Structures are given as C-alpha cells and as structure tokens.
Amino acid sequence: MNASPLNDEVLQDVSGGTQIPYIVAPGDTLEEIARKFHCTVEQICRWNNIRNTQTIRAGQKLIIRF
Length: 66
Description:
Blueprint: E1 12-14, E2 17-23, H1 30-37, H2 41-47, E3 61-65
C-alpha cells in the first residue's frame, strides 16, 4: 500500500480540514486503507461516493479527509 506523497500540490484545505489522494494498490481493501488512515470504511465510502465496498480497484484514486 503506497500513499501519495504529501506536498503542496496534493494537500488541500477542505472546509477546515485537509484531504489527500490515495491510489489503491493491488490487493488493497477498504478495511486496510481505513486502518492505515485511522478512519472508517463508511467514511471512505461517503467521501468517495462508493456504494459497493467490493468495487474498489487497483489504480483508483480515493480521497481521504482529516
């Protein structure tokens, strides 16, 4: 699992918080990504309009908010 590097280009202010992009690696699951970023699967789904938790794929860009 590789997170995108944090720099001025990818780190953005979002309504008093920050967001970073995360590119899904082969074999990643939403549960592992949520654990890595200390959030819930439900939050990731809401932030990224994901309706089916089984449909993420390698190369997909997700937004993680803090």
